[in-house]
UniProtKB/TrEMBL annotation:
Domain of life: Bacteria
Segments for region (Disordered): 1-23
Protein name: Uncharacterized protein
Length: 224
């Protein structure tokens, strides 16, 4: 469900008490500027396992509270249109302030080299080992393309992509800005080239503490 208070998140609320959303996706930035319109913008119908279909973000969110989307390759393709709905749903759970953001130059490289693929479900997780559990170490033969906010790895058998859509900084206790909790909204594209498997999901990535060289971990949103 979407929080109505989030539609007027910045009114009468100090910035230190707000969730700070720094968007890197133009689509998400536009949606957060006008949530009412974004919630009801028509999309390709997405089928759910109870036989119902969602055709916009509001219907999608309501159906997700009780039912998962139907599992089929075509439905998975359509779900790619609804990734922005996942982000809106997550962000609008609490008052927020959204701004456009430019990521550090090494952000996508960090996902390539340090995102632990054992921490969330994908077509790659069953192939991970203690030594090989990042995109860089697991898909060593793949062709890698990176931008400031995305990384794509393509092999003869599959295509795997990660796009950072937003960086979220949650309010800390007692307004201590130094202890704000940060996480990334990342859109995952996971395809096998034989056409038998496609998945487009939203991943919540938790960066390690800045002073460490630890790994990034993730969890799928929403959980189903």
């Amino acid at each position: 469900m979407f929080s109505g208070s989030a539609l007027h998140a910045s009114e009468g609320t100090g910035e230190s008490a707000l969730t700070q959303v720094r968007t890197t996706s133009p689509e998400l930035a536009t949606a957060l500027q006008d949530l009412k319109t974004a919630l009801h913008t028509p999309k390709t119908p997405l089928m759910f396992d109870n036989g119902a279909a969602a055709s916009n973000c509001a219907e999608y969110s309501n159906l997700l509270t009780a039912h998962p989307p139907e599992e089929s390759v075509r439905n998975a393709e359509i779900r790619a249109e609804y990734l922005v709905c996942d982000a809106i749903r997550l962000i609008s759970n609490e008052p927020f302030l959204a701004k456009r953001h430019t990521l550090p130059a090494n952000a996508a490289k960090a996902l390539l080299e340090r995102l632990d693929l054992r921490s969330f479900p994908s077509s790659l997780r069953n192939r991970t080992t203690d030594r090989s559990h990042t995109l860089k170490t697991l898909l060593v033969s793949g062709t890698v393309k990176t931008t400031q906010n995305s990384v794509e790895v393509e092999t003869d058998e599959q295509f795997f992509s990660l796009q950072i859509a937003a960086v979220i900084s949650h309010p800390a206790l007692a307004g201590n800005l130094k202890t704000r909790r940060s996480e990334w909204i990342v859109w995952v594209g996971d395809e096998m080239k034989d056409g038998n498997y496609k998945s487009y999901r939203t991943l919540i990535v938790r960066p390690p503490t800045p002073s460490s060289r630890g790994q990034y971990t993730g969890s799928m949103y929403p959980t189903e």
